[in-house]
Amino acid sequence: MKNTLFSNQLLKIVLIIRLELLQKSLFFFLFVGLFSTLYGQQRAYKVPQFAKDWGKPGQHPDHIILNYGQNPATSASVTWRTAQEIAVGYAEIAVATAAPKFWRNAKTIKAKTEVLDASEVKDASVISNYHSVTFEDLQAQTVYAYRVGDGKIWSEWIQFKTAADREAPFSFLYVGDAQNYILELWSRLIREGYRKGPDASFIIHAGDLINHAHSEREWHEWFTAGGWIHRMLPSILVPGNHEYGSLSTESIDRKLSVQWNPQFTLPENGIEGLEETNYYIDHQGMRIIALNSLEKFEEQTEWLEKVLADNPNKWTVVTYHHPLYSASDGRANDELRSLWKPLFDKYKVDLALQGHDHSYARGRVEPYLAEGEENVLDGLNMRDYTGTVYVVSVSGGKMYTLRSNAWDDWDEAERDRAAENTQLVQLIDVDGDKLSYQSFTATGELYDAFDLIKQPDGKPNKFIERRGYAIDERRHDNTISYDDQLPPDVKTEIEKKYESYEIVSVRLVDNAEHKGYYAQLRDGRNRLDLTISSSGEILKAINQQLRYSQSEVEYNSDNQLLTYNLRLFLTDVNEALGLDPQSNELAFGQSDESPRANRMLLDYLNQLFHIKVNGQDMQLQIKSKQLSGEGDNTALSVYFEYQQSSPLTSLEIKNAVFTDLFPNQNNIVYVNFDKKSKVLVHNKKTHTHQLDF
């Protein structure tokens, strides 16, 4: 009996100990799980490899995509790609029915075939045929089925629905930049979007669909990631800056992707020279206006006013790539805002859908009140009414940091919702006088929401905030780390060892060359590149100075005077000219400067630097020089003036000073044209910029 009692007591003790251990284990795993959720495991990413000819065309039609025309109630277009040997293409279309032999009523249309010879184009290296057919005289609000091929080899039958020929409820999707990790990560986002809006009428892509403008592999990623969604859901697209690139390593001129016009069939009702990148579509009471934010701003502004002034639709949405109110730091677009916002205000544009900034921001501007409307909102809460709502969103896998001061430096605008490090897709529903906007994460959570309600007599839209139904705001500090991190103990040791430096980037690698970390540190102009083992040992430390030039161009149309102030670090000037920095042989900018100093400096600058005004070279004449700073931070400012005889229409600036001599350098040029500002970045790949005024 005693043995039994003793055994029971012992069993209880063992169970209690096991329970305590289990509780501690559960706490440990919950803690580890939370840590992993927030910061992610430190592991090197295995970048996927693609077979050599994976993106090349074949006999079977691929890259099939559906686009709307100006009137989506009666027309739609399909475009597809094949190998060069498929010289003829056809499309067949019929009203779809549940009977499998609906094709008995189909008609066959011969395609327009275009040869794209991009065999000499950087990143493309392909010759392919693009085939396109525009289906016309379609019935409104009708489900059709189509297929494409060469008469023997055909695609599957694909269904789509035409728009109604009058105002009617509908929904559509909108996404920002896909651009990076397209097949890996954008695929899940676009599929989640379709899951949220299976009845969507179309999808808006706000530019930067891919990363390298002419890359056949990246375009193949984009078409593969979207798959049959591209075939069923009409795409409305605008180009971003990454749809522009040089055609060869020798060329510096950036051209629209050679694939853009052949692979999309979009309306051509925009301005000449921007075909299929600037246009509009009318859909069931909404006008969707596509703008090209890369070129011909003035011409588009004139066109935009006409399209807005003669607009019979209840709702107006504009889409373009570069945001008027940026989400991320250092990406302001003052010129576009000064040109387009006044028109958005005047004609009461409802929604502006943008990309480019690789983060999320949604905000609005004050309602525009025309003359005589000053008292229209008297007695009402102005926060309940709004002018244009501006959205910046990102759908791909590359992420930036939000602006530190939100939209505080724009008095007329207020940012209401923001996100970092989050892939998002937007679903917009339109029903009569109500537009409902929702933004969803790649895993289907509601992230943002609001409603716009049309008011009678042209009054501003009523605004209903609904973000209270969404999840908490997401930032870099409460999500899985986007950047690789050094282990805390290694980070502490490096910060002690290089106390004047700041760690600016870390990359975790696991390949045949190295297993561990690459870290870059900065201290002013000094850069330190570290190679670190997986155990934290510093294997290599390379120190170099950052070399760059900073300059400012100003033009005043009143006196037609162009000025250019070029700022160079004196140590780098001496080094570039082969002089001993410690000597005063030329004494730039000082009282005992050599008579040949200007000549040597101009000879150097003329090799790497030029300004063309209205297509004509500006002869560099140094007006003055000035030194500032001390020691290695001593800067030489060189000032030029150019008096014009005619108004400024174009400006070409080449600045390869230092960038051709030293790797990984950027030169910054600030351009001020009658108080309108633009920032240009020159580097080894892009050392020339062309501006048209």
Brief synopsis:
With 693 residues, this protein is α+β, with helices and mostly antiparallel strands. It is 18% helix and 34% strand.
Structure description:
By secondary structure, the chain is α+β, with helices and mostly antiparallel strands. 18% of the residues lie in helices and 34% in strands. It contains 10 helices and 39 strands. α2 packs parallel to α3. It is globular, with a radius of gyration of 30 Å.
Task: Report the biggest beta sheet as strand number plus sense, adding barrel if it closes.
Answer: 8 strands, mixed
Global Rg? 30 Å
The largest beta-sheet arranges its strands as 11-10-9-22-23-24-25-19
**Runs with pLDDT <50, length 5+?**
27-37
The number of helical elements comes to 10
Structural features:
single chain; 693 residues; alpha+beta; eight-stranded mixed sheet; seven-stranded mixed sheet; 10 helices; 39 strands; 34% strand
